[in-house]
Amino acid sequence: MRPLILAFDTSTAHCAAALLSGDRVVAQRVEAMARGQAERLMPLLEEVLAEGCATWTDLTALGVGVGPGNFTGIRIAVSAARGLALGLDIPAVGVTGFEALSLGIAKPVLATLSGPSGQVYLSQGPKLVPLDALPDIYATPGLTCVGDHADEVAATLGAEAQSAIYPMAEAIARLAADRFDQTTEPPRPLYIRPPTAAPSSDPPPVLLHDT
């Protein structure tokens, strides 16, 4: 039987999900949003399941984006994944945004994600650095840059820029499909910097609806 993986990500200004059956994506959604992910996540996941003609109990495993990115967004997705995994008795696999961006791209690769105040998260480290002051220690022969600001980073480091091969949620699903049978720990957020604000006052996502 083909594994059925539901993956989702709210680490940036979107709510994204994908349903992967074997190696085929059967449903996928991405909605841009800066706020309201806590309320939207579970309905979006149910819509993706319905589009893929699946139910919660059909799932083999979950995949979730663990960051880096928005503190509140990461917390929403990781908390939902941990709660769902516990309720459904299936594994949840944490996948970093760097891993998702780099999937299928030949090494060496430097994955980049937008950070706050003109900064960028770099997969090497990982660390957060100013976009206009990238250390040249990251310059590597044959380096490929992928992700947010890839063109700018590549130009600074004398590297090549490439677009990610897979959308974020699909990449998370594919990596989770490869790892779920070896996963023993729940997903944990990847916070490269401490939060700069108090935790969100948004209500936590409703994990499961009675049917």
Summarize it.
With 211 residues, the chain is α/β, with parallel strands linked by helices. It has helices at residues 37-51, 71-88, 97-102, 150-157, 168-179; strands at residues 4-9, 14-21, 24-32, 61-65, 92-95, 109-114, 119-122, 127-130, 144-147, 160-162.
Shape: globular
CATH superfamily caption of the largest domain: ATPase, nucleotide binding domain
User: Mean of the pLDDT scores?
Assistant: 92
Query: What spatial order of strands do you see in the largest sheet?
Result: 3-2-1-4-5
Would you state the CATH class of the largest domain?
A: Alpha Beta
How many helices? The count is 5
Q: Strand count, sense and closure of the main sheet? A: 5 strands, mixed
Helix content: 25-40%
- Which consecutive residue ranges, at least 5 long each, have pLDDT under 50? none
Structural class label? alpha/beta
Give me the secondary-structure topology.
Elements: E1 4-9, E2 14-21, E3 24-32, H1 37-51, E4 61-65, H2 71-88, E5 92-95, H3 97-102, E6 109-114, E7 119-122, E8 127-130, E9 144-147, H4 150-157, E10 160-162, H5 168-179
Parallel strand pairs: 1-4, 4-5, 6-9, 9-10
Antiparallel strand pairs: 1-2, 2-3, 6-7, 7-8
Helix pairs in contact: 1-2
